[in-house]
Amino acid sequence: MTITPIGPISPVTGPSAITPASGASSATGGTDFAGALAKGLDNVQQLQNKSDDLAVQAATGSLTDVHDYMIASTEASLATQLTVAVTNKAVAAFNDIMRMQA
């Protein structure tokens, strides 16, 4: 399988969004994986909520700029697709590990 680069991907919330929980870090000095995962899922939920709020505003006619809704909707969609892709890869990796013989 060949992996083709698609170009630089910028984070939705910036590089400072993933920080270890208070006092939590791994033995190698990295960030806390569970904390980073929870923060990422919270970010996806916030993007979905923002998109939903703007959709309601667009439906009621109180939204002045439809571009705001389209941008929020696309951000939420991409974040959800990324979350699903990472989840699928994690499950596939887990299944591969479980199939290994000792």
What does this structure look like?
This protein is mainly α and 102 residues long. Helix 1 packs antiparallel against helix 2 (66-99). The chain is built from 2 helices and no strands. The chain is elongated. It is 61% helix and 0% strand. It has a domain at 32-99. The chain starts with 32 loop residues before the first helix and ends with a helix.
Q: Please report which band the strand proportion falls in: under 5%, 5-15%, 15-25%, 25-35%, 35-45% or over 45%.
A: under 5%
Major sheet summary line: none
Quaternary organization = single chain
Instruction: Specify the helix fraction band.
Output: 55-70%
- Rg over CA atoms, rounded to whole Å, is 18 Å
Number of beta strands: 0
Put simply, the count of helices is 2
Low-confidence stretches: 14-20
What is the structural class? mainly alpha
Terminal CA distance reads 26 Å
Mean pLDDT over the full residue set: 80
Shape: elongated
Order of helices and strands: HH
